[in-house]
Design a protein that fits this description.
heterotrimer; A mainly alpha (about 280); B alpha/beta (about 290); C mainly alpha (about 120); A: about 280 residues; mainly alpha; about 75% helix; globular; C: mainly alpha; Arc Repressor Mutant, subunit A; two-stranded antiparallel sheet
Chain lengths: ~280, ~290, ~120
């Protein structure tokens, strides 16, 4: 069977298996936000500061040029971070659950290679989920902005127009798409570490996924003056916006391929190979 | 017939415990092989080795492939049903059929749905809402739709009531056993598969105690129902086992002529369950 | 209808006897097709190979013949062939023990024929 077709079928399986994580949660957040926006307009709640007609978010970082950008950035960032948390949770269970409930015996009776399975889960977690969250974040922005602006335009004469609202949103989402893509590479070593733990842990994968690196940090700090390895690990464990310090230019700038990226790639490859072995040999708990 | 599958000096150790010890076996195409043994004998270990689900020493060759090296290619032609419900409980019936169709080259959705029509299973049902018997029905319909050449069943009817059990074998007989497809089945309920078997394998403590075709088994072993009067004489002939009956005792003999037993009682075909108990010893009651 | 298996003979021989009976009784006439291997196997809940073996015996004895792609058919002289064979078997295998029992019971054939009728 064609590998691409198989990967797509397996990807669909992941979506069927985790509807809450993959789409129900972000859609739920969308619904909550739009509802709050509507209620704000109708009942004068202070959702996003709309009651005071103060739609520019007060942050001390220069991310927004105006109210539309501010709101768009708020949603993109929030959904991005939410998505990253979901990715971690998803990957932690990805190769663990099927061993725990013994369904791996069924999956392995299908003509699907370990490589295909691991790839499908990796791609679902690292690529699909963040993109879904970004997309829904963008739609949330549009709908909330629409509601707020339509609701408030009766009070304020000079407000942002429809088309410029859209273009502001698109620009911000464009930036965040770039960040999301960068994050895929930035976080890859950590994602694969978690997937590896998922494939070999006999119980409590979270404990091992966090515990071992912490122990590593302890050991390294005791033995050496500088914790090179652990620092690198824990830096990559943070999502890019946190690691890069929320500076707009810093976030978007920076080369896509540099020495750190190559190191990430090598580490990811090694962890990926180990995960493959884990999936191959660790069948039952 | 060319050996369809061959198992050569396969061993498996779990720490100190030898689950399999130098097992060698050949399975011809079209064979229906019954793997009988008490709990812990090594049946599941052997089957898992054949499926590439566990490591082992020795060589296994199925359809020219090694389960160690080419598991996922082998699975195009091999199907597996285990005694524990291994179908993902979160999936729906229509989802598992759709998925099997997308990853398995020979899968026929039509066939799967046709077989399910004879059951109470609804397409939108989640597997976790199905009873154990229905899960087995579903799993069977999946492997039959995959049109596999070799089917490996590890106690598939364990814990099922008689209706499901009977229906299971009936379905197998109608759709799978055509003389060309091969079946390896491990079970405790020997009687219900006895008439389907072409080969018999007894396994105990990881070693094969018997490995013959059914024809050879019936030629080699004979049973004798003897009245109390002849018991002493019969015993002097060196039977394999003796089981008391209301009128005397039943004996099993290995390689004895009909003449030697003439006049001592009723000679008959040996039953597989009684042969197993006779060979393995009276304290192993796990075969019914 | 399911065959009542006895525990004396191999299953394939019992199937052979079952088919022979059907032919002798004229249930399957000369030139008519035998039930398919698969059909019989499913009906009697036995391995198709066992059924094949039984049918093969019929072919070897000339009682049935195979037509490529169409299946097995009863030969024209099947009934007569079967009668001859079964007669021989009866005389060879079953009669001696019956004869012994008759002498044990002190019955003669004349007695039997009178009693039975």
């Amino acid at each position: 069977m064609n590998t691409v077709n198989t990967l797509m079928a397996l990807g669909l399986r992941e979506i069927w298996e985790h509807p809450n994580l993959v789409w129900r949660l972000p859609v739920g957040l969308l619904v909550i936000n739009v509802t709050l926006a509507l209620l704000s307009v109708v009942f004068g709640l202070n959702y996003l500061g709309s009651a005071d007609l103060n739609l520019s978010l007060q942050t001390d970082v220069n991310i927004a040029d105006g109210p539309a950008e501010a709101v768009a950035t708020f949603f993109c960032l929030a959904f991005f971070l939410m998505g990253q948390l979901v990715v971690l949770s998803y990957l932690l269970g990805a190769l663990f659950q099927e061993r725990k409930d013994r369904s791996i015996l069924f999956w392995k009776s299908l003509p699907v290679s370990d490589l295909e399975v691991v790839l499908s889960k990796l791609l679902t977690g690292v690529v699909l989920i963040p993109l879904v969250y970004l997309l829904i974040g963008f739609i949330t922005f549009l709908m909330v902005a629409l509601v707020l602006w339509m609701g408030l335009s009766s009070f304020v004469e000079e407000l942002v127009s429809g088309p410029s609202l859209l273009s502001a949103g698109v620009l911000v989402v464009g930036d965040w798409l770039f960040v999301t893509l960068k994050q895929m590479w930035w976080g890859l070593p950590i994602f694969l570490w978690i997937l590896l733990v998922s494939s070999v842990a006999r119980s409590q994968p979270l404990f091992w996924a966090l515990g071992l690196p912490l122990v590593g940090l302890l050991i390294e700090s005791s033995l050496f003056s500088q914790t090179v390895v652990s620092s690198w690990f824990w830096a990559h464990a943070q999502p890019l916006p946190l690691a890069a310090g929320f500076d707009h230019a810093e976030l978007l700038g920076g080369p896509m391929i540099g020495p750190d990226s190559v190191l990430s790639g090598v580490v990811a490859l090694v962890l990926g190979a180990l995960t493959m072995l884990g999936r191959r040999y660790c069948n039952e708990i | 017939m060319m050996p369809f599958a061959s198992i050569n000096k396969v061993s498996k150790r779990f720490g100190q415990h030898r689950a399999l010890d130098g097992v060698s076996l050949e399975i011809p195409q079209g064979g229906v092989l019954g793997l009988i043994g008490p709990n812990g004998a090594g049946k599941t270990t052997l089957l898992k080795a054949m499926l590439g689900l566990s490591s082992f020493e020795g060589e296994i060759d199925i359809l020219g492939r090694s389960p160690r090296r080419s598991r996922h290619e082998l699975m195009q032609s091999v199907g597996y049903i285990s005694d524990v419900g291994i179908l993902p409980s979160w999936m729906r019936v229509d989802q598992i059929i759709q998925l099997s169709a997308s990853v398995h080259p020979n899968f026929s959705e039509l066939k799967a749905w046709e077989i399910l029509e004879h059951t109470q299973i609804q397409p939108k049902q989640k597997i976790k809402t199905l009873s154990k018997g229905m899960i087995t029905q579903l799993h069977l319909s999946l492997v039959l739709a995959m049109d596999v050449k070799l089917l490996i069943l590890d106690e598939p009817t364990l814990g099922l009531d008689i209706v499901y059990r009977s229906q299971f074998y009936q379905q197998l007989l109608e759709t799978f056993l055509d003389g060309r497809r091969t079946l390896v089945i491990s079970t405790h309920q020997v009687e219900e598969i006895e008439s389907l078997l072409t080969h018999l394998v007894f396994i105990e403590h990881g070693r094969l105690r018997l490995s013959e075709t059914m024809d050879d088994v019936f030629e080699r072993f004979s049973a004798l129902d003897a009245p109390s009067a002849s018991l002493a004489t019969v015993r002097s002939l060196g039977p394999l086992s003796e089981t008391p009956t209301l009128t005397g005792a039943s004996f099993i003999f290995d390689s004895i002529t009909a003449d030697a037993l003439e006049g001592l009682g009723e000679r008959r075909r040996v039953g597989i369950a009684e042969l197993f108990v006779g060979m393995m010893g009276p304290d192993l009651r796990s075969v019914s | 209808m399911p065959i009542a298996w006895n525990d004396k003979e191999p299953i394939y021989l019992q199937i052979h006897q079952y088919l022979a009976q059907l032919i002798l009784e004229g249930v399957i006439g000369p030139g008519e097709p035998l039930p398919s291997v698969r059909q019989l196997a499913v009906e009697q809940h036995v391995n198709p190979l066992t059924v094949s073996k039984a049918m093969q015996l019929l072919v070897e004895d000339g009682v049935a013949f195979k037509r490529r792609g169409l299946g097995m058919f009863v030969a024209d002289d099947a009934a007569e062939l079967l009668r001859v064979e079964l007669r021989a078997r009866f005389l060879r295998e079953e009669w001696p023990s019956i004869a012994r029992r008759l002498s044990l019971l002190g019955l003669s054939l004349a007695d039997l024929l009178e009693e039975k009728l």
